[in-house]
Design goal:
single chain; mainly alpha
C-alpha cells in the first residue's frame, strides 16, 4: 500500500513536470493569432461541439453530490429517534 502511494506521488510529480514543459515551450507561444474569440464563439462551442461532454460532466457532478449527501446522512438510532419524536423525550 505504501509503494502504491509513493508511485502515485511520483506519477503526479512527473505529470506536473510534463505539463509545465509543454505549456512553457517556445513553440506554443511563438505565433500570435489575429483572431479574437467572442462570447458568441464561446457559446457556439459550448452548446454545439461540447454539448454532450458538458452534459456528461453535469450528470457525473450530480451523481457525486447525491452520493456525498447520502454519505453525510447520520443514521444512528439516537438521531433517527430525534427526527421521529421531534426532540421530545418520553423516557
Amino acid at each position: 500500500m505504501r509503494l502504491l502511494s509513493i508511485l502515485s506521488r511520483v506519477g503526479l510529480v512527473f505529470l506536473g513536470a510534463v505539463l509545465i514543459a509543454a505549456v512553457s515551450a517556445d513553440s506554443v507561444w511563438q505565433d500570435s493569432s489575429d483572431y479574437t474569440i467572442t462570447t458568441g464563439d464561446l457559446a457556439s462551442a459550448m452548446f454545439g461541439e461540447w454539448a454532450l461532454p458538458l452534459l456528461a460532466l453535469g450528470f457525473l457532478m450530480a451523481m457525486a453530490m447525491v452520493g456525498a449527501a447520502y454519505l453525510v446522512r447520520d443514521e444512528r438510532l439516537v438521531n433517527l429517534k430525534w427526527e421521529l419524536d421531534g426532540g421530545e423525550n418520553d423516557d
